[in-house]
Amino acid sequence: MSANVHFPPPRRILMGPGPSGAHPRVLRAMTEPLLGHLDPDFLRIMDSCREKLRAVLRTANRVTLATPGTGTSGMEAAVMNAVQPGDDVVVGVCGYFGGRIAEMAERAGGRVTRVEAPWGAPVDPEAVRRAIRERRARVVAIVHAETSTGVLQPVEPIAAAAREAGALTIVDCVTSLGGVPVETDRWGADIVYSATQKCLSAPPGAAPITVSDEAWQRISSREVPPNSWYLDLRLLEAYWDERRTYHHTAPISMVYALHEALSLVLEEGLEARWARHERNGRALQAGLEAMGLTLHAQPGYRLPVLTTVKVPEGIDEAAIRKGLLERYSIEVGGGLGELRGRVWRVGLMGEASTPGNVLYFLSAFGRLLREAGFRADIRAAREAAAAALAG
What pLDDT is stored for residue 2 in this prediction? Predict the structure, then answer.
């Protein structure tokens, strides 16, 4: 064992692309006594989780549950269950995670058409509509909040185009659920999935997912089972519903955490929580621009919960991230894929979305940039952010 390992780990302000910090109530919930995964009291907690998930996802879907694993398990469950071999699939790709969906759909045997957009802009709904018609798509997939670029994608017109063509719509809400409006039923989305570790502010380990009646009918009537046994939604649903058919040993403590995190979301109120994230995110963005920096995502489509900031010429982006971590105990993320080394990704998700974090980050970030040779106007940044927070 390395002599340099320290436990417990240091406290950090998690302002990257995830995970976010967990509320103390969520952490306490994870220390509660373990129960068996078929214990009647645990099953009641699961049932309560389902009701809270429906409220947070804004849906009446009967099939609503949480898959074991991080957000990628929700993505894989959605894709592997909805896509059958030979299906034509249209995927909107404007960043790293849209590309991941497309790759999964190909592995599921789908014939994938990618509708591309520059990394920093949303996918054009009309281009998706044309691709759906041309390919006679059976499944359409889109990322609502693209974590790699900071883009907020309009979902409703894409879901409408899919519905007109009789296609199922999959929506990735990993980074949006609990931070910006997610309206499953109003959108007409068929499969929506998310994760615990972003705006819900619980540790990584479970992925909420909801399935419309139409999508469930298609999944239930599959002739070829999905490639994943562990994430076969028919098997998972049989455990989450009243049948309680054994499938796996549930992550008991993660279900406790999810239940408490959802309780906190609903206690705050969805509209109030969305407004908090919007206010703090826009304040951060105003401060960064007042500092003299350039935001990467296209105006009008910028996520308030995840901001991408272009790295100025001559600045070592990794060195700035290292300084934030070591000197200020702030974690932010670097770029993924084609944005590697070109942007910082700054998250304000869940528990991290506070005015104090906005102002503290701007001061720390500005000092490090000044030391690196960039003329960061810290005073202007703080004033702009404060004005946005007050307004």
Answer: 55
